[in-house]
Amino acid sequence: PSTADMLGSRSSALLRRSAALHGTRSMARWSAEKVPMGPADPILGLNEAFQKDTFDKKMNLGVGAYRDDNGKPWVLPSIAEAEKKLVAEGWNGVMQKEYAGITGIKEFNDASVKFAFGENSPVIAEKRLASAQVLSGTGGGRVAFEFMARFMGKGTPIYMPDPTWANHLPMAKDAGLALATYRYYDKKTFGLDFNGMCEDIKAAKDGSVFMVHACAHNPTGVDPTLEQWKEISSLMKQKNHVLFVDMAYQGFASGDAEKDAAGLRQLVADGHDVMLAQSFAKNFGLYGERVGCFSMVGSTTEEADRLLSQIKILIRPMYSNPPIHGARIVATVLNDAKLKPQWYAECKSMADRIIDMRTSLKANLAKEGSTRNWEHVTDQIGMFCFSGMTPEQVEKLKTDYHIYMTKNGRISMAGVTSKNVEYLAHAMHAVTK
């Protein structure tokens, strides 16, 4: 064949190969049919819209992180001091960034359980606790749900309060548990539906799993009284229910860490072998450090040892071992005679500012002339206020007043300051009158 024929043949082959390659690329491995676009996270979407808003009085009341009265993040001075100490002295006198092991830092775990269960708790003295450092509250919850699925069975129902923190639902579902709810929030009173809650506890099958919030219930800010906790505990005991306690706001709720742990300690005193997930994000301001502790109460030391062995087996393939820095900070603070009381005072100052903003918001709503009952604003506790506003009213706040919050009317009180509380009250009155 001639040179021209040879070149033509090669050109045709290249074209065929290119077409084949192009065709292969057009058949995507991860097609939309196989991997559809997931829905955007509602909180992240809210934050993005807020960032794009150029209005000077805009307010972001969706974020679940503390802000000072200037609307700025706050690193607690006790935390800063602990970090300085770690940089200067190292960890236990050694400069190292070694792995902490599957269950994390022992000093942190020991300090965490004393913080939650009490310095003189019998379950600590009797060595009946299995404890592991985890990735904050989400990590603790996921380990708990995986444990339930493995040892109680996939499809086991878990009863959660209606409503609960949105992330609880996919966490439990992805672990293989079946979702169930019990009555908790009363939309008519904006308070606790205690009778409904008790009825649902009684109606559930004996030995069912119930999840409760220890304090500062998210999203409602509605907590049982201590007397109600006693009755809840008694009913749970009669039904032999399994209890998982989520405690993300100890100290941040009322400003008194001992008071905020009263419900948990009542359950333990009454003989419940609880599972507990602690988070140190809100109360220590360590949001991005992902600091948490997961604990299970055993009936004996031998049982606690078996529980811990299985917790380790769950954690190892999940994330192997936890990060060290945040846990070292918490351990340093809680084990230091100077820093510990300093932290208690700083945590109380955060709680007190939130409480002050609740009082001011209610007062300014009355000043605006609102005739609605806003008592729940001050009756509720913690980071969030479940306002009772409808999705339509929330949307009007956003479009007319540039105030951003989740559609269920949950207000992050951390975003309310002495400088914007009057504007918020004015807007709330305008959309609810």
Low-confidence stretches: none
Q: Name the strands of the widest sheet in spatial order.
A: 2-10-9-8-7-3-4
Query: Nearest-angstrom radius of gyration?
Result: 26 Å
The number of helices is 18
| Number of strand elements | 13
First CA to last CA: what distance?
91 Å
Largest sheet: 7 strands, mixed
Helical proportion, percent range: 40-55%
Beta-strand portion reads 5-15%
Rounded mean pLDDT is 94
The dominant shape is globular
Helix-strand layout with pairing:
Elements: H1 3-26, H2 42-52, E1 59-60, H3 77-89, H4 106-117, H5 122-125, E2 129-134, H6 136-152, E3 157-162, H7 168-174, E4 178-183, E5 185-186, E6 191-192, H8 194-203, E7 209-213, H9 226-238, E8 242-247, H10 257-260, H11 262-269, E9 275-279, H12 281-284, E10 292-297, H13 301-319, H14 325-334, H15 339-368, H16 375-379, E11 384-386, H17 391-401, E12 403-404, E13 410-412, H18 421-432
Helix pairs in contact: 3-14, 3-15, 4-14, 8-9, 9-11, 15-18, 17-18
Structure description:
- The longest helix has 30 residues, at 339-368.
- The termini are far apart.
- The protein has a 7-stranded mixed beta sheet, sandwiched between helices. The chain has a two-stranded parallel sheet with strand order 1-12. A two-stranded antiparallel sheet has the order 5-6.
- The protein has helices spanning 3-26, 42-52, 77-89, 106-117, 122-125, 136-152, 168-174, 194-203, 226-238, 257-260, 262-269, 281-284, 301-319, 325-334, 339-368, 375-379, 391-401, 421-432, and strands at 59-60, 129-134, 157-162, 178-183, 185-186, 191-192, 209-213, 242-247, 275-279, 292-297, 384-386, 403-404, 410-412.
- Helices cover 49% and strands 12% of the residues.
- The protein has 18 helices and 13 strands.
- By secondary structure, the chain is an alpha/beta fold.
- Strand 7, helix 9 and strand 8 (242-247) form a beta-alpha-beta unit.
